[in-house]
Amino acid sequence: MPYHPKSDFLDVIASRGFLADCSDLEGLDAALLAGTQTAYIGYDATARSLHVGHLMNIMMLRWLQKTGHRPITLMGGGTTKVGDPSFRSEERPLLSAGAIAANIAGMSRVFARFLDYGEGPTGALMLDNAEWLDRLNYLDFLRDIGRHFSVNRMLSFESVRSRLDREQSLSFLEFNYMILQAYDFLELYRRHGCRLQMGGSDQWGNIVSGIDLVRRVQDAEVFGLTAPLLTTADGRKMGKSAAGAVWLDAAMLSPYEFWQFWRNTADADVGRFLKLYTELPVAECDRLGALGGAEINAAKVCLANEVTALLHGPEAAAAAEATARQVFEEGGIGTDLPTLVLGRSEVGEGISLAQLLVRSGLAKSGKDARRLIEEGGARVNDAPAADAGEMFGPDRLAEPVKLTAGRKRHARVMLEG
Predict the structure, then answer these.
(1) Which residues pair with 70 in a beta bridge?
(2) In the prediction, which pLDDT does 333 show?
(3) Exposed, middle or buried, 16 (CB in 10 Å: 0-12/13-18/19+)?
(4) How confident is the model over 333-369, as pLDDT tens digits?
(5) Which of 95, 179, 281, 303 is the most buried (most CB within 10 A)?
(6) How far apart are CA 237 and CA 91, in angstroms?
(7) For residue 168, which of 180, 177, 159, 179 has the smallest C-alpha distance?
(8) Cα–Cα distance, 226 to 212 (Å, whole number)
(9) What are phi and psi of 41, to 5 degrees?
(10) In the beta sheet, which residues pair with residue 44?
């Protein structure tokens, strides 16, 4: 008979679809019931922003705090220098210290939208594992920590074995990653009494290693919990769109584009995504997800509004919905669309349509733009475009021009001043 959690946190994440594996579900449940617990999720600084693929575990931290516990967002200033090899076909490119610091600064802005970093027993902490990893003495670390790790066991983890089975190189640098992540758990336990590490199911091997290390060194009971790795109904990895990664930083992806990503959710995913990415009651998520026909579109708008409001604020969500209505229902341009502003010197006597499609982000290259036009997928002010070399001079750009790629991707182009 399946175990039904009694603590608020586990009840929430189990009912909303966050729970994949737990090292000791009943033990963790008892600990959560006994008092405030501290849990962490680590984030390596491999890009200037977090993306939608991170949003599920950010929501786990949010629910942890909302149910009376303390979340830690651990920035990987140290581990990013090594690179997590889990389920990757090749080694991550090594980043400079300056690039890592810039990435951490960009990623940190997102967390403040979801977590309260105030004082008090449940106030979130933002830490950087470079604080302890950068200071390690290699020989001491090998003697005190490395002796607790079995190479045989490390090779048995799926994240490592899958790489070796494909006869793809795994550097000694990468092989150290799971030891460093396990050491993070030990340090967080020592410094902050952290007893729970969470992450995606691809991190299970690393999490188990951390649990084992804390048990061996501190003789303490700690726990691991993972969320499923999501794919959309059509089999794509969650967080990818036709235009690339769906970033959580407004400077890298506009609130309108973020809103539109959720509005374009497949019918079969609506109910599931409402439970994972919003705070609407489960019963309401199920009701909206069960709608059919044209009514499911209202549920998608609800999903887009709720997720966008959490990240960018209610005003940004309302503006994105208004722009979508203007663009799709009224045939307007919409002031909240992604906008390319060109200086007069850039335009000169004229700039081609192909160049505008590339510069606005609607095409990846001139070749891609020409293919889009030849296949009838490009429009200018809602009229089909036929000539990649069509020129747009200062007079034509005096008023904003709406460009469209496919059915759902739009941008404005306007002249500066």
Answers:
(1) 38
(2) 58
(3) buried
(4) 555 667 777 877 777 777 888 888 888 778 888 888 8
(5) 303
(6) 20
(7) 159
(8) 16
(9) -135, 135
(10) 76
What DSSP character marks residue 337? S
CB distance 339 to 257 below 8 Å: no
Does the CA dihedral 60-61-65-70 come out positive or negative?
A: positive
Our CA angle for 236, 19, 84, nearest 5°, is: 60
SS3 content of the chain, % helix, strand, coil (to 5): 50, 15, 35
Instruction: Give yes or no for a contact between 347 and 394, defined as CB atoms under 8 angstroms apart.
Output: yes
Q: Which residue type, as a one-letter code, is found at position 415?
A: L
Most confident of 63-72, 110-119, 165-174, 406-415: 63-72
Class of domain 339-415: alpha beta
Q: Where are the beta strands (DSSP E) in 55-189?
A: 70-76, 125-128
Identity of the amino acid at 413: V
SS3 of residue 404 by DSSP: strand
Give the DSSP H or E segment for 305: helix 295-312
DSSP 13-56: HHHHT--SEES-HHHHHHHHHHS--EEEEEEE--SSS-BHHHHH
CATH of 254-328, one of 1.10.3720.10, 3.40.50.300, 3.20.20.150, 1.10.240.10: 1.10.240.10
Say how many CA atoms lie within 13 Å of 368 toward its Cβ: 15
Report the CATH superfamily, name and number, of domain 8-227: HUPs (3.40.50.620)
24 conformational bin, left if phi > 0, alpha if psi -120 to 50, beta if neither: beta
pTM given for the model? 0.78
Name the β-bridge partners of 378: 405
pLDDT tens for each residue of 278-287: 999 999 999 9
What count of other Cβ atoms lies within 10 Å of the Cβ of residue 252? Answer: 16
Q: Would you say 68 and 8 are in contact if contact means Cβ atoms under 8 Å apart?
A: yes
Q: Report how far residue 324's alpha carbon sits from residue 337's, in angstroms, rounded to the nearest whole number.
A: 8
The domains of the chain are located at 8-227, 254-328, 339-415
The residues with which 126 forms a beta bridge, in sequence order, are: 73
